[in-house]
Amino acid sequence: MVRHEATKADQLIATKLGVMLGSAVYYSEILHKENDKPIQLECRWVNAKYAPKYHQQDFTQTTPNEYLTANCPMTAVEHTVEAITCGEHIARLLEMAATEPCLLLHRRTWSEDKLISTALLYHPGSRYQLSSKVEL
Which pTM value belongs to this model? Predict the structure, then answer.
């Protein structure tokens, strides 16, 4: 757990979450590891109106995704993927060079017609592979 707090939506987050500027939102920044090696930095903003107990969760015991799925069942998800260089703060947390390629996944999730969360998921390019399967 890097950060976990109640805050107010700035212009960017208000737009991404579809809320009014200054609305109550929760922010969590969590470093995920595998075999003691960082594989993902999750920066997530949650609409406090739809997940009012999000900020009370212990994300060392469960993940934000597990909590939100149980309390706001996901009905739609939007992903956008881009390759970036991540800057010093993120590089330090992910134990990588700031000039190393980083995969950034932008994610928004809905439960029914409610936009629940928006997240930035950072992955070291050398330690992550993205794949998808869609059944039609």
Answer: 0.90
